[in-house]
């Protein structure tokens, strides 16, 4: 059982509560300043506590609302940011691809002797990572074995194997490749063979150069057209250094390739090539006839009898 003191407190609390209910219900109906003053003074502590608690509850509710609102906003902004990053990446990729295609188109316009088929690099042979690539063009597109593969920068290699929808390209960096080459400089025209180096995955050398050959560092090396695979005049690289071979009878030149084989993305296959018609020679102007040149006398005829 509850003690008498506790019961008294409960009864007192109930009475005060009833008085408060009656007071607030009677506001506006009765005007009793003295009673109002007494009740206000009695209930002031309770009202202050209630107001404080209510204020704290409102603050806490607003805080929770702000937290959830900020969380939702942050999640939405993060999603928008990720979407924008993806769009920027796609735009940059499209711009890079368009730049490569424009470069290839300009090369095609400047080299009308070639019928070019654009292709994308879709992989590399895992067994020969540095010397073979896979492109997305095959026999269904007219690609055949031994066709030349280039970029606007220069020679890439040739079709090693052609399948229906893709082909394997042997790069000129493969030590087993052999490209007939020649020095582009008019007063040199030294011929040789360009091969990949077994010592480096990206180096190429021009071999079979005589000791007294007219070749110097910086010379541009192009395809010679010998051998029947590679058309003549495609840039291969520039001479980096000239060294003696192991036998000492010949020398070879290490080359800087025109093509960056580690960054191959877009290439072109030469489906057909033809000789470029040379402009007809303009005949030399003839010397004008002298104004005072004498014309031969014509014989006169007389009447016969």
Automatic annotation (TrEMBL):
Residue ranges annotated for the Rod shape-determining protein MreC beta-barrel core domain, each copy included: 121-270
Coiled-coil ranges from the UniProt annotation: 74-111
Keyword Transmembrane among record annotations: yes
Keywords: Cell shape, Coiled coil, Membrane, Transmembrane, Transmembrane helix
GO cellular component: plasma membrane
Residues that span the membrane, as ranges: 9-28
Domain of life per record: Bacteria
Region (Disordered): 280-305
GO process annotations (BP): regulation of cell shape
Record-linked PANTHER family: CELL SHAPE-DETERMINING PROTEIN MREC
Free-text function comment from the UniProt entry: Involved in formation and maintenance of cell shape.
Family indicated by similarity: Belongs to the MreC family.
The protein's name in its UniProt record: Cell shape-determining protein MreC
